[in-house]
Write a structure and sequence with these properties.
Elements: H1 4-36, H2 96-101, H3 109-117, E1 124-128, H4 136-149, E2 154-158, H5 166-169, E3 178-180, E4 183-185, E5 187-188, E6 195-199, H6 215-228, E7 236-240, H7 247-255, E8 263-268, H8 272-287, E9 292-298, E10 302-303, E11 310-311, H9 320-328, E12 332-336, H10 340-348, H11 358-374
Parallel strand pairs: 1-7, 1-8, 2-6, 2-7, 8-9, 9-12
Antiparallel strand pairs: 3-4, 5-6, 10-11
Helix pairs in contact: 3-6, 4-11, 6-7, 8-9
Amino acid sequence: MAERPQVAVFAAGAVAGACAAGAAAYVLSRSREEKASPSVPVKPELPQEQEDSGAATASAAPAPEDDKPDDANEDCVGVNSEQAGKASGCAGCPNQAACASGEAKKKDPAQEEVAQKLANVKRKILVLSGKGGVGKSTVSAQLSFGFAARDMYVGLLDVDICGPSVPRMLGLLGQDVHQSSEGWSPVYVPGEDRLAVMSIGFMLPQQDDAIIWRGPRKNGLIKQFLTDVSWGPLDCLLIDTPPGTSDEHLSLVTYLQDASIDGAVIVTTPQEVSLMDVRKEINFCKKVNLPVIGVIENMSGYVCPKCGHEEHIFSPSTGGAQAMCAEMGVPFLGKVPLDGKVAQAGDQGKPLTLGDGPVAKCIDQVIGAILKQTDKK
């Protein structure tokens, strides 16, 4: 009788051992199956815009800044959303009733005001770039000088609010904006009464002061530039924008909807790192129904002034801007080479002349291509 507990203990131990062995065998078999069937990487999907179900939802995507009233809630879905006034983020907003009734969807009166203000401007052109540092403001400045050299009345509006370099590039540092009964008077380039400029750079107490603004303040200044500046009759208004596709670009496209804008000139450099962002810029233009006048390839190559050898500093590894334009079905306006005289002209606020090398000739050819596109209409 004394041996029975030992038998029971032995039997229990045997059962536990069998269970452990079975578990180990299962784990081993699962491990072998996983090795035999490697995992397939899953590409994460970008969040998609949700269809309206007729009910308020807490997960409604936030709206672009230009689609929000200035006093809207942080989670505003935008006045043009089907959930406007109904989404959970609309609770307590002073605009909720107007959004729910559709009143807020009515066209901004500023659009008609801008159209009237720019009625005497023959050509309205945005200068865009997907990537920063491609020489967009330099191209804008030299295009302005080039148009004026053709006896055309030109306006250059600088809406690169956080980095206004146009005043320096046109030799206008230290100038002030004056106000008259007709609005803000643009600043004219000395000795050139055909070229007028407007920039926030004229309004800074100190040239090195930083502009630290969120979207609504930028939007307000752009609206004021378009409605308050008295340009008078112009053959061409060039609008120099910051790189990318952000608040400034959306505000411009919205306010210029009724002003018969001609389209956008996009500046790039030849390498793929720049072109990949320019493709996004072109797709942005397509989404907002902004015509693409064409693409300029800046810094396309460097020609040695002594031996004539051409070196591609920014290598066009995927064919450059010309190949990209053919691929995306947009006009190619031309190439502008690298030249040290371009940087000197920008720092000194002077135009390039035909005696300064190949760049001035290339800029003139680009202007001819732009006019060919805009005058088709």
